Amino acid sequence: MTHRPIDEVLRPVRPHPAEAFWNDPPAPDQVDPAVLGALLRRHGWQRRGGAAGRYGRWTPPGPGGGGTSLLVPENRAFPDSDDLLGEALVALARSASPSARDVLLALAVPSDEIHWWRDVPTGPVGAAPWTVEERTRGAARQMLLAGALAARARAGYYGARHRRAAGASLENVLVGAEPGGRGLTAFVPVTTGRPLAVRLHEALCAAREAIDYQRATGGMDAFDAAVEAGVSHELTESLVALVRGTEGARITVEWSPAAGVPEGGANPAEPVEFSPGDLPVLREAGARYLREEPSVPVRLTGAVVRMRRSGPRGAGTVRLRVIAGAEVPHVRMTLDEEAYRIAGQAHIVGLPVRVHGRLESRGGFRRLTDATGVVPVQVDEAERDRLMKSLQENLDFFEEACSED
């Protein structure tokens, strides 16, 4: 395992689109009153009267909510609608209620919301140990990544495939803990993340149906068909992490009221629940996906970044940084003496190589077997300069190719 030096400067993280709007509420003319009302209801605010057909009076959730209220117009049919909206938005921005920020975020950037809830014992005053929230966050991230992978391709086991692109698609997702530490909410922007939210909900429903089928019949066949809905080894692993140590867990997807319900989606989307009794089936399904995912024939183009062999002659191991041909960042392969020599010469002059082989599922699709047809590939000057710079910065990699272990 490689660790970052503690004094290394971290790469700046791209901000969520809503962050630019968080300190200032959105303008009243950019807010649909019906959307605001739907978001308030979703986040636990209570409507307590108001002029019928004109506006509603809303109070926040919790025991201290009675002293604060918002007047929210039902539509823009009256001259004072924008004034009421403006006052309500300012009051939300100043509110101490945690749900107020959630409402403003959903207004700033329309987002689908994914909620996780774990039934675990609580401590004094309903609080949960910090490890509970940590485990919930870890399982939620695993599940979001599984959904992002399924939105890109269907597979029973992804390993390293598509992981970089799937991880990048989560950069704009915001996550906030709910009071008590047992719940978590992810805000997935509709413009970039709706396919993820749709696919994840479909996959969770398919996993629930496959578990029920197995428990009723003893057969695992339903998990084979569930792959098309997005169920995978990665999803079953995230469900095991979510459910383990609880008396049950629930995942709910709520569609953005501003964007509406996706095609084919239900409104509201039904919560999907899992229990400790599902864990043996989930573990068996995960192992089945891992065991049965086939190797993949590929033609890769990549830059040689590491070479190693036990002596000055014979076969050796080469590591490639993949440029094209597979959705993995790096692969390792064993080459015969002639192919190893070609790869070494390409490495010296800063050229990538092209190679045919099979990506093996064992090890997470990080190894290429039956590697043949290794040839250098011409690239434009800019790419060649960049590869040469990488070579100069990593001369120790090539030195290993010329030395004995």
Give short descriptive properties of this protein:
OB fold (Dihydrolipoamide Acetyltransferase, E2P), alpha+beta, 405 residues, 5-stranded antiparallel sheet, Metal Transport, Frataxin, Chain A, 40% helix, disordered C terminus, single chain
Q: Percent of residues in helical segments?
A: 25-40%
**What's the tally of helices?**
13
Domain module count? 3
Order of H and E elements: HHEEEHHEHHEEHHHEEHEEEHEEHH
The count of β-strands is 13
Shape: elongated
- Cα-atom radius of gyration: 26 Å
Low-confidence stretches: 1-22, 394-405
- The neighbouring-strand order within the major sheet is 5-6-4-7-8
Kindly report the oligomeric state of this protein. single chain
Mean model confidence by pLDDT: 83
Strand content: 15-25%
Q: Structural class per helix/strand content? A: alpha+beta
What's the main sheet like?
5 strands, antiparallel
**Distance linking N and C termini:** 20 Å
